[in-house]
Design goal:
The complex is a heterodimer. By secondary structure, chain A is α+β, with helices and mostly antiparallel strands. In chain A, 30% of the residues lie in helices and 30% in strands. Chain A folds into 2 domains: 33 residues; 108 residues, OB fold (Dihydrolipoamide Acetyltransferase, E2P), CATH 2.40.50.140. Chain A has a 5-stranded mixed β-barrel with strand order 2-4-5-7-6. In chain B, the strands form 2 sheets. Chain B has a 5-stranded antiparallel sheet. By secondary structure, chain B is α+β, with helices and mostly antiparallel strands. Chain B folds into 4 domains: 165 residues, no CATH class; 233 residues, no CATH class; 112 residues, no CATH class; 98 residues, no CATH class. Helices cover 65% and strands 12% of the residues of chain B. Classes of the chains: A alpha+beta, B alpha+beta. Strand 1 of chain A pairs antiparallel with strand 1 of chain B, so a sheet runs across the interface.
């Protein structure tokens, strides 16, 4: 091989690798992105059951029910619409009724949202940003956001 | 009064850093040695002033001076002393002070140990360091001043976020910042080289130790953060691909690439332009990480406060330094002469492959981290990119790299023999497959990929040792000769072997815990039992207790194996009184390299409690692997040829280098 050919092989190999990486990233994006919705969106937009999404909103007061063992059901609301959620596992320390929550999972055919991950905020003044933005856009007053400064 | 002195010292420090930036630059432009000589003095003065200012803030925390807003917001008089001190950087303002302090430390180190640097290079490096310090000094004084007062002073503070009240806060941020900020020196060296349009192997010899030191700290910092999240959050996970974790991981990947390309540049004078670019990119990623974490665009435990002006200010710093550096690079890179040529199959070629894969991986993680932010900014759509994305892309990219790692040190410079290297690694591959087969025999089941993962991990470990084995000539020469040779191997050879061995150990841990961990979530009443990892845990009951600033409910478990009680586990939930905030304190017991992990959920009506029990096989390998990698970095750093402060030897070397040019 001449020097020129060698250089071509090296550069070609590098470019092929980068191309493969780009394709890989695009494929992974198409597979594993979860869109964020609040309950109201689920009525207006058609989200197919089984699609992985993030559902955000407030935990409706008085809606938390503990079933057998560690299965929990609660209702997520954006004050306009509600979605029932079921989750098996341990809820985060800061999960509370009337407070912000983000649940990740998929809608079942019966309209019940099966969550595999439930995220609550990290401290008492923090509301998940996605939730806060959307709720504010809908004119919901957020008590948790009045931080003393 | 003392608070105002600290504030004043910070303002003075800003003034010194401006001097540290402007005068030496003017000096190199006009070739004025007196002006250049200002740099080290200004760097030392700036360091002392920032140190004093930082000590004053610490003092305010120690004596719980709630007339300082920052102390009032983040401290409590009942908090244990260790958390009062570590709480200094457990908030936005204080952590930026730590950033600035470490930046000043690195400047001072160059001033003290850089007496063997060429005058112009040292002046330029310190000037760029001064510029970075100026930017962050301004940022602190204008948007994040920790010395603001409050009148009248409240009687009691609002306490620190309980999640942060842990020994981890004392260790993780300083280590991480030493790494993050340490790369600023590589950046400054790169900019200095571009300003002067001159770069040679000696430049790489000065940059490499700093890159190594920063990399070692960053490795330890990330590992510590991972372990902290693991035991403190009670979720049992050690890595979440959280944007904040990625923010530290991207510079680590870039820094690892830099470390390797600097070797090529030092030994072979090749890849000069690429190394300079990597040095710029690595610190740019550190800055980007700081922006992501501190600006409030991400919500996480690290985003202490969200104030839009801060985000915009850091974004300004980011654009100025990254944009400025890359523009300078575009203009000046052509003036740097390209270096030596080499065959694709050679040590250089292997290191190029390493760089290709590591930078691609860094770019992939960066894409996944920024994509949701970009999409929201452009279309307003909110998405999340989670672990599945990163596991798929990053995981696949790492496979060729991991397989190639042991080949690198076995290939010769300039022209290597792939076949011969492959033959030498037969033993490593064989041992790896044997261990995997034994694991399969013991475990009987589990995903088949996991066994390949374990085989790869063992192959990495043995492969790393193979290099030392061959270089010492064990088995080929008399044992005494081999021992002498082994002892005589350069520190960097041991460093390389250790770091690569650490990767293998970590891989074994990651694979084992991902494939073979077991998790049980059960509702338990006193007397009930749950089985995990061959142990039987019996729940005995709850006990209430009081800590200095929290109340606590602890559950007691007896752990038995084969009917015999071997140990006990306390797992608890705490309620921090000042913030009315609960935390989970997981109960963890270590058995060899594996752990039993018990965390508590809600109490049920009727005396039951939800309990989550994990068996985490080999999980400690993950962090031990990281520690071994860090040890490798340290051993390499102690190599006499690379030692930071070896002025005598370097001085003798310098004429030789100059003569060679």
């Amino acid at each position: 091989m001449t020097r020129k050919q060698k250089r071509l092989v090296v550069i070609g190999g590098g470019v092929a690798f980068l191309l493969a990486a780009v394709l890989l990233v695009m494929f992974a994006f198409s597979q594993s992105i979860a869109y964020f919705y609040v309950p109201g969106d689920l009525q207006t937009e058609n989200v197919a059951p089984g699609t992985r999404i993030r559902l955000g909103g407030l935990v409706e007061a008085g809606s938390v029910r503990r079933g057998e063992g560690s299965t929990i059901t609660f209702t997520v609301t954006d004050t306009l619409a509600t979605v029932p959620v079921t989750y098996t596992g341990i809820l985060p320390d800061l999960f509370r009724e009337g407070q912000g929550v983000v649940a990740e999972g998929a809608l079942g055919g019966d309209g019940l949202f099966v969550a595999d991950t439930v995220l609550a905020k990290h401290d008492e003044t923090y509301m998940p940003k996605d939730v806060a933005d959307r709720l504010e856009a809908q004119g919901v007053q957020l008590s948790g956001k009045e931080t003393i400064k | 009064m003392i608070i105002e002195l600290g504030h004043y010292a910070l303002v003075l420090a800003l003034a010194t850093t401006i001097i540290q930036c402007l005068l030496p630059l003017a000096g190199t432009l006009r070739n004025d040695r007196a002006l250049m000589a200002v740099a080290p003095a200004a760097a030392l003065a700036g360091f002392l002033l920032v140190l004093f200012s930082f000590c004053v803030l610490t003092f305010a925390y120690v004596v719980s001076d709630f007339s300082v807003v920052n102390v009032w917001e983040n401290s409590h008089s009942l908090k244990p002393m260790i958390y009062k001190i570590s709480g200094v950087w457990g908030n936005h303002e204080g952590s930026m002070m730590l950033w600035l302090l470490i930046l000043a430390i690195f400047s001072a180190l160059v001033a003290v140990f850089g007496s063997n640097l060429p005058e112009r290079l040292r002046a330029n490096v310190l000037a760029v360091q001064g510029l970075i310090s100026t930017a962050f000094g301004l940022f602190i004084l204008l948007t994040s001043n920790p010395f603001l007062r409050l009148s009248p002073a409240p009687a009691e503070g609002r306490d620190l976020n309980p999640v942060l009240q842990d020994i981890g806060l004392a260790i993780h941020p300083p280590l991480l910042y030493l790494g993050y900020v340490g790369f600023s020196l590589c950046f400054s060296f790169a900019i200095a080289a571009l300003i002067d349009g001159r770069i040679d192997a000696a430049w790489a010899r000065w940059v490499r130790p700093w890159a190594l030191a920063a990399w070692s700290f960053l490795t330890a910092g990330i590992a510590m953060g991972s372990y902290w999240a693991y035991y403190e959050l009670g979720w049992g996970g050690w890595w979440f691909w959280d944007p904040v974790e990625n923010a530290s991981f991207i510079p680590w990947l870039a820094g690892t690439a830099l470390l390797h390309s600097a070797i090529v540049m030092e030994k072979r004078e090749a890849l000069k332009i690429w190394t300079v670019l990597l040095a710029i990119l690595t610190f740019s990623m550190s800055l980007l990480g700081t922006f992501l974490v501190r600006s409030g665009v991400l919500t996480s435990v690290h985003a202490f406060a969200t104030d839009p002006t801060r985000g915009i200010f850091i974004l300004g710093i980011l654009v100025f330094f990254i944009g400025g550096a890359l523009s300078l690079f575009a203009f000046r890179a052509t003036t740097l002469k390209a270096g030596g040529l080499f065959q694709p199959i050679s040590r250089e070629g292997a290191l190029v492959l390493n760089n290709l894969i590591l930078t691609t991986a860094a770019a992939t993680v960066l894409t996944g981290t920024l994509y949701p932010l970009m999409l929201e900014a452009v279309t307003g759509e909110k998405i999340s990119v989670g672990p599945p994305f990163f596991n798929l892309t990053f995981g696949l990219l790492m496979i060729p790299l991991l397989l190639a790692v042991p080949f690198g040190p076995l290939l010769a410079w300039k022209r290597g023999d792939l076949l011969a290297a492959g033959q030498r690694l037969f033993a490593a591959a064989g041992i790896g497959l044997t261990v995997a087969a034994i694991a399969l025999y013991i475990e009987r089941g589990g995903p088949i990929m996991a066994y390949f993962g374990i085989a790869t991990g063992v192959y990495l470990i043995v492969g790393a040792l193979t290099d030392l084995w061959l270089r010492a000539g064990i088995g080929k020469v008399a044992p005494s000769v081999a021992w002498r040779r082994f002892k005589g191997l350069p520190g960097s050879a041991f460093g390389t072997a250790l770091a690569h061995l650490g990767v293998g150990v970590m891989l074994v841990g990651i694979v084992a815990v991902t494939a073979f961990e077991t998790e049980h979530v059960v509702e338990m009443k006193p007397g009930m039992q749950v089985e995990a990892g061959g142990f039987v845990l019996t729940y005995d009951g709850m006990r209430s207790g009081q800590g200095p600033n929290y109340s606590e409910d602890s559950a007691h478990f007896t752990v038995a194996r084969g009917g015999v009680a071997v140990t006990e586990i306390w797992s608890s939930k705490r309620m921090y009184t000042a913030r009315r905030m609960p935390t989970t304190e997981a109960g963890i017991r270590t058995f060899g390299l594996s752990q039993l992990y018990v965390s508590l959920g809600d109490e049920m009506t009727g005396g039951g409690i939800v309990v989550r029990v994990w068996w985490k096989p080999m999980i400690l390998c993950i962090w031990f692997g990281a520690l071994i990698m860090m040890a490798g970095g340290t051993v390499s750093l102690c190599d006499r040829r690379l030692r930071v402060g070896a002025p005598q030897k370097a001085r003798r070397m310098k004429p030789a280098v100059e003569a060679a040019e």
